[in-house]
């Protein structure tokens, strides 16, 4: 246990406190931190319009991506439960996309949704639909990322599936005898039985989305397609028109492209407070975590 | 008068149609889930010229694309870097996290609940929050530009792995451990001779998760190695491939497949342990 305690100290408590301290300073990697009081925070909340944009982008993902993934997980897991045969086969197929490494999956999607040559718009054109610009359009870039996240829903689906299989069968049989139709059985039996899992999925989904970084970064890099050798990898983040610049990406760019370390830490402290508030909701359900043997 | 019996072939075909109809929604969903993989495979065999058209099927097949990605780019070096990161991180994580999870799941000591809550908080903390202080720490020790800042912390444990291992160890009955203690085993012996052999599936699942995490990791390598191309991992290289080799979508797709393949192969060999692990990360009500 001792190493883990050291780990908590060195890699969690110290950096957390350091982040708070640095957030009141101004420095780059080469200079000594200079105390500036609340100036980073005033800048963040009153002047940095990009931070506002980034926070709204992240909020957009929390409001759209999390429910979209939960709905997809619910539908696919209920579909699997309803199958008489071949459940294992379909479960594997539905799960596969969740295994695809995020960078690889994102690149594949940018190619599939390429407006000019991608298969998606090609297939849409067979039906006379003029497909949008997807990852190249400020209006469609976020929905495209939601499609990617929903495709890779397998991890959540497996959790929902396990919970669905735990719902006692006699409950459904009794309800059917009492004349409940499929929708009533869903609302009055399935949903209440799943509520702890739905709650868990919502909270962890929000926490994961607060750190949403890789897919947005890679989609922007690959879709923009401009040579980034001059400005470094991060110079394309947010493409197109900052529509995919999530809050963590803005933090990264502030710290490691502009070397504004103090300001990046102010952004980090705000992110921490939001994430911590969400974690508290989860910890209030702490008893659910201690389960297992009991 | 005889009743016209349908011929055997027709019956088989009808029964097959019934099966398809009954599962039509599942089949449609399966096609949607699998289609992106198929398109990537098809594209990876095209010429770079054809990859720029909207054709879906390769007119000529070019398996040499998979050789080209190694010759046109130091793909092999990136593969070695990624393997080093993933294997060392997984090995170190097991050394440190199994004892910690054992202490949390099976030993009674003051503050164990508090430590467990802190570990859950660590697990939930967005990594970007502590990025700058950690980067400064590693920068002071001169290790930025390498993958060591991602590997060395595993020697003291990983929050998610400790959490997951603890969930597995909780399912081992205390009576088994007590029996070993009565036979004179020290706690370390209990851990090594009783707990580890019993928890093999759980340990395997946790190791696979850690390996995949490192294999897939983009944020960590970006943070520490983006300026040092010789230490790039596959995920960084892949994200830059299109930029460095503008129009060669076919090679990008071949490289994409190469990065996907090991994960999917491991999954098929360890499917049961893996799915069990995914399920345990969720909470059963």
What's the helix and strand layout?
The complex is a heterodimer of chains A (294) and B (285).
Chain A lengths: L1 H21 L2 E2 L7 E2 L3 H9 L1 H34 L4 H13 L2 H11 L6 H8 L14 H11 L2 H13 L2 H9 L4 H29 L3 H11 L22 H10 L4 H23 L2 H4 L5
Antiparallel strand pairs in A: 1-2
Chain B lengths: L7 H15 L1 H21 L3 H4 L13 H7 L3 H32 L5 H13 L6 H10 L7 H4 L7 H11 L4 H9 L4 H12 L1 H17 L2 H7 L8 H11 L4 H21 L1 H11 L4
Helix pairs in contact in B: 2-15, 4-15, 5-9, 5-12, 6-9, 9-12, 10-11, 12-16, 14-15
Structural commentary:
The complex is a heterodimer of chains A (about 290) and B (about 280). Chain A has about 290 residues and is mainly alpha-helical. Chain A has a single domain (about 50-290), classed as MetI-like (MetI-like fold, Orthogonal Bundle), CATH 1.10.3720.10. In chain A, about 70% of the residues lie in helices and about 0% in strands. Chain A is built from 14 helices and two strands; from the N terminus they run H-E-E-H-H-H-H-H-H-H-H-H-H-H-H-H. Chain A has helices at about 1-20, 40-45, 50-80, 85-100, 100-110, 120-125, 140-150, 155-165, 170-175, 180-210, 215-225, 245-255, 260-285, 285-290; strands at about 25, 35. In chain A, strands 1-2 form a two-stranded antiparallel sheet. In chain A, a hairpin with a 7-residue loop joins strand 1 and strand 2. The longest helix of chain A has about 35 residues, at about 50-80. Chain B has about 280 residues and is mostly helical. In chain B, about 70% of the residues lie in helices and about 0% in strands. In chain B, helix 2 (about 25-45) crosses helix 15 (about 250-270), helix 5 crosses helix 9 (about 160-170) and helix 12 (about 200-215) packs across helix 16. Among the domains of chain B are: about 20-65, no CATH class; about 90-235 and about 275-280, MetI-like fold, CATH 1.10.3720. Chains A and B meet through helix 1, helix 3, helix 4, helix 5 and helix 6 of A and helix 2, helix 5, helix 6, helix 7 and helix 9 of B.
């Amino acid at each position: 246990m001792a190493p883990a305690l050291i780990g908590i100290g060195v890699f969690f408590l110290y950096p957390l406190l350091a982040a708070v301290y640095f957030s009141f300073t101004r420095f780059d990697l080469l200079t000594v931190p200079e105390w500036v009081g609340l100036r980073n925070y005033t800048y963040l909340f009153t002047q940095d319009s990009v931070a506002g944009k980034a926070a709204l982008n992240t909020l957009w993902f929390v409001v759209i991506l999390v429910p979209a993934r939960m709905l997809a997980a619910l539908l696919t897991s209920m579909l699997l439960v309803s199958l008489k045969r071949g459940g294992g086969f379909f479960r594997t197929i539905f799960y596969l996309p969740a295994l695809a490494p995020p960078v690889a999956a994102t690149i594949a999607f940018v190619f599939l949704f390429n407006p000019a040559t991608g298969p998606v718009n090609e297939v849409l054109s067979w039906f006379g639909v003029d497909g949008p610009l997807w990852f190249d359009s400020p209006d469609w870039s976020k929905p495209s990322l939601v499609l990617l996240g929903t495709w890779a829903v397998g991890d959540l689906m497996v959790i929902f599936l396990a919970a669905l299989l735990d719902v006692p069968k006699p409950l459904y049989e009794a309800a059917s005898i009492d004349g409940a139709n499929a929708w009533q059985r869903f609302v009055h039996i399935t949903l209440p039985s799943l509520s702890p899992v739905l709650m868990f999925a919502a909270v962890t989904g929000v926490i994961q989305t607060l750190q949403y970084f890789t897919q947005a970064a890679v989609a922007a890099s690959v879709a923009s397609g401009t040579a980034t050798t001059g400005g470094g990898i991060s110079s394309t983040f947010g493409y197109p028109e900052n529509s995919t610049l999530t809050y963590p990406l803005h933090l990264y760019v502030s710290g490691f492209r502009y070397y504004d370390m103090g300001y990046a830490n102010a952004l980090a402290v705000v992110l921490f407070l939001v994430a911590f508030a969400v974690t508290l909701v989860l910890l209030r359900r702490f008893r659910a975590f201690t389960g297992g043997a009991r | 008068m005889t009743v016209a019996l349908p011929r055997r072939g027709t019956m088989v075909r009808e029964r097959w149609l019934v099966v398809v109809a009954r599962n039509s929604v599942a089949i449609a969903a399966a096609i949607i889930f699998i289609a992106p993989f198929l398109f990537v495979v098809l594209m990876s065999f095209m010429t770079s010229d054809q990859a720029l058209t909207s054709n879906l099927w390769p007119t000529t097949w070019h398996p040499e694309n998979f050789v080209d990605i190694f010759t046109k780019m130091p793909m092999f070096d990136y593969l070695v870097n990624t393997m080093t990161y993933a294997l060392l991180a997984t090995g170190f994580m097991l050394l440190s996290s199994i004892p910690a999870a054992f202490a949390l799941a099976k030993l009674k000591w003051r503050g164990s609940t508090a430590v467990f809550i802190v570990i859950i908080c660590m697990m939930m903390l967005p990594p970007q929050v502590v990025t700058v202080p950690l980067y400064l720490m590693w920068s002071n020790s001169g290790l930025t530009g390498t993958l060591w800042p991602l590997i060395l912390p595993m020697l003291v444990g990983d929050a998610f792995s400790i959490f997951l291992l603890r969930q597995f160890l909780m399912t081992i009955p205390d009576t088994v451990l007590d029996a070993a203690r009565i036979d004179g085993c020290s706690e370390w012996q209990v851990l090594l001779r009783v707990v580890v052999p019993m928890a093999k599936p759980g340990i395997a699942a946790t190791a696979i998760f850690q390996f995949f995490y490192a294999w897939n990791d983009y944020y960590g390598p970006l943070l520490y190695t983006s300026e040092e191309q010789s230490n790039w991992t596959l995920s960084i290289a892949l994200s830059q491939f299109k930029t460095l080799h503008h129009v060669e979508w076919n090679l990008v797709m071949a490289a994409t497949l190469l990065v996907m393949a090991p994960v999917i192969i491991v999954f098929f060999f360890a499917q049961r342990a893996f799915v069990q692990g995914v399920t345990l990360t969720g909470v059963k009500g």
